[in-house]
């Protein structure tokens, strides 16, 4: 296997320590590291084992390095679709928590959000409970959240530019809301989006969601549907997410990326990005 290492602030001796640990055939810097602000290295000819992975995981966490064991010669061009979660993945916030803040209810809603992302509450139940707390809120709060609080995650634009230039399609599939995914689609020139629709009557949120709730099953079904539309196998998909409701779509992908993710997600994903930005996937597939 190849072991890809990347980080933003490299401690002295970290690469030498990892070289001694994994005993690669060669070690080389990845020229012009694709992740903005990151340094990256490729260690080739590494003999993979679960024991070695656990040791690398501990060493990289201590050094604040991200790592990925990648089959040699695997390239971005092997894939046809990048599917992304929105809240806390493509963007830095949980939109529903920020909407709730306009109602003075952020702590209550955020607590339910966190429990759902850790997999402790079924997503449908958690969304229904959280949205109900927003009943009566002026719908103008959604625009305020978009204007004042929504920010793209580090490396998001760089990553999207590179994958779009390589001809891959993009899907934003979210347990969040169409108000935000529609704006992300236009702003970032995304190919597909799918999310939940908040019911609004007379300019106020009713506390209800219209139609099918986009939960873990619906996310997986959406990835499968888009793959059929573009003539791709799900294994030609890179799926990026952070919460338990992303695991089912990550499970059918060819490469699953846990971004600043909950432990349950990091444990099951192909790779995790804890320190560099979303564009860290570019170094893995360089």
TrEMBL record:
Enzyme Commission number: 3.1.3.3
An example Gene Ontology molecular-function term: hydrolase activity
Major enzyme class: hydrolase
Annotated protein name in UniProt: Phosphoserine phosphatase
Organism, scientific name: Herbaspirillum lusitanum
The keyword ATP-binding is annotated on this UniProt entry: no
Cofactors required: Mg(2+)
Listed pathway(s): Amino-acid biosynthesis; L-serine biosynthesis; L-serine from 3-phospho-D-glycerate: step 3/3
Keywords: Amino-acid biosynthesis, Hydrolase, Magnesium, Metal-binding, Serine biosynthesis
InterPro entries reported for this sequence: HAD-like_SerB, HAD-like_sf, HAD_sf, PSP
Catalysis performed (reactions): O-phospho-L-serine + H2O = L-serine + phosphate; O-phospho-D-serine + H2O = D-serine + phosphate
Family: Belongs to the HAD-like hydrolase superfamily. SerB family.
């Amino acid at each position: 296997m190849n072991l890809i290492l990347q980080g933003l602030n490299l401690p002295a001796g970290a690469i030498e320590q990892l070289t001694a640990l994994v005993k690669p055939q060669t070690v080389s810097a990845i020229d012009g590291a694709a992740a903005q602000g990151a340094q990256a290295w490729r260690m080739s000819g590494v003999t993979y084992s679960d024991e070695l992975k656990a040791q690398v995981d501990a060493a990289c966490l201590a050094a604040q390095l991200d790592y990925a064991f990648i089959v040699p010669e695997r390239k971005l061009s092997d894939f046809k679709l990048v599917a992304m979660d929105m809240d806390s993945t493509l963007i830095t916030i949980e939109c529903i928590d920020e909407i709730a803040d306009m109602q003075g209810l952020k702590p209550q809603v955020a607590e339910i959000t966190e429990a759902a992302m850790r997999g402790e509450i079924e997503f449908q139940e958690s969304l229904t409970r959280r949205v109900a707390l927003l009943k009566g809120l002026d719908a103008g709060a959604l625009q305020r959240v978009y204007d004042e609080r929504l920010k793209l995650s580090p490396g998001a634009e760089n990553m999207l530019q590179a994958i779009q230039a390589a001809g891959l399609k993009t899907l934003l599939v979210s347990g969040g809301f169409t108000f935000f995914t529609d704006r992300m689609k236009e702003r970032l020139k995304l190919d597909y989006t799918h999310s939940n629709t908040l019911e609004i009557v007379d300019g106020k949120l009713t506390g209800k969601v219209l139609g099918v709730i986009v939960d873990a099953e619906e996310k997986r079904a959406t990835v499968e549907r888009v793959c059929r539309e573009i003539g791709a196998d799900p294994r030609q998909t890179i799926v990026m997410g952070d919460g338990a409701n992303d695991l089912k779509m990550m499970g059918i992908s060819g490469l699953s990326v846990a971004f600043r993710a909950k432990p349950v997600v990091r444990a099951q994903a192909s790779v995790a990005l804890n320190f560099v930005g979303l564009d860290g996937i570019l170094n893995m597939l360089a």
